[in-house]
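We close this part of the discussion by returning to an individual protein. The sequence in question and its structure tokens are set out directly beneath this paragraph:
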Amino acid sequence: MSREKWRTGRQIQLHTPADNVDRSAMKKISSMFSALQEKLHRAKAGAPPPVAAAPPAGRESHCGLRFFEYLLVVSLRKRSSGAGYEPQVTYQFPKREVMGRLQREQEEKSMKAAHLFCFPEGVHWAPVTEYSSETFSFVLTEVDGSRRNGYCRRLLPAGKGARLPEAYCIISHVACFGLFSKIFDEVEKRRQISTAMIYPFMQSLREAPLPSPGSTVSISSFIPDAGTQIIRLTRPADSWLEHVDFTALFSRLNDEELLLVFTAAVLERRIIFISEELSTLSQVLHAVAALLYPFVWQHTFISIVPSVLIDVCEAPTPYLLGVQKSMMGLITDHSDVMIVDLSTGAPSKFITRIGDEESLLPLKLKEDLLSGLSTRTHHASTEQLNRLVSEAFLSVFVKTVGHFSEHIKRGGKPRQFQKKSFLKAVENKTYTSFVQLFIQTQMFDLFIQEEETQSNPNGFFHRKVKEHRDRIKQEKLKAGWVRGVVI
């Protein structure tokens, strides 16, 4: 299929005007559930593939009061045709009978999408005797624009002989990968004893209050032969980083390669990440999105692309996609796209890229970034690494566009951003070309729209901007005093 056909025939689903971010349109674009099931079973010719919206990177998402909405057990069942297997939800907790009618309808739509992400490879499965457990995540976006996170642990059930893997999937409004990885450790421990041991634990978890960032909640759970255990679950103090672990990103890319990826993401280009490991794909894509803080990726974001959605790679609009290496041959359009191979031992990390990424980020910013990243140690904890990396990349935005608030005209309602005066006041004139490109992105446009309507001067980014500007003032005062002494 040509990109022009996609552009004309699929524009309603995937295209958002670059000069005007329409939130209601973005919500419609982000809706996937009924379309996913329709594509899976009917495979209509020319039907547009649904897409997932960006994760809530850099913004604390609405978490509600519960750890999770529900737990799904997804099993592989023989297809009616006899060729291959397909994923099916074989158990749901809490059960549908205890839900109201509207809630049941919403959950049914969600499940039509969730089970596809648990086994994105499609029908090509066979019973195995060994299988390493893996944990990954994805994002589900509802029709109303609300987001829920899917966390999945795939494992091989206890038993003898060849058998099929199964997946445990938790759907939650909470964005915290590390927290749910620990929960899955407890789920897997109980699964090896009996499936009946899982549900009392999940019920206790469902009844427990969600701790605030930096706080801990204790869950009591009974295990035969071990007695009652106390499981302590702690949320990271940095709420906007609690869904992120940069370890996988740095294990697959060196600092210079990461800067090329960052540049492409900042300028909202099409980027596809390739790997066999689902956990690597989900962790790397969420980490790349987090590098954009305080800005939020506004385009298509699918951390793990199911085989039935592989043609989304042909979309001409910006995206961040994670594709398993076994499906690499299905990607036919390599033009104007950065394809990053995350495989261990890959001869080149970039299968394709546009080629101008080295020249787009100003030299001074690149040097500062590389200097900041070089201070990390191999023994750093996840929290220490997250903070060091995020602050290094945050400094790019502090130095280039941190003066934005001084150019939002006050007095009128709504307040208005003064683009011309903003560009003239860029801190370093060598940054101007980069800033001119960046302010044309949807992520910057939406950020400014929110600042025009309701600013948050106590936010983390605003505090970092103030610290930077205060430091510059002090340096100027000090330089002036030194010159006065010399004179």
About this structure: Residues 1-53, 56-64 have pLDDT under 50 and may be disordered. The radius of gyration is 24 Å. The first helix runs from residue 3 to 9.
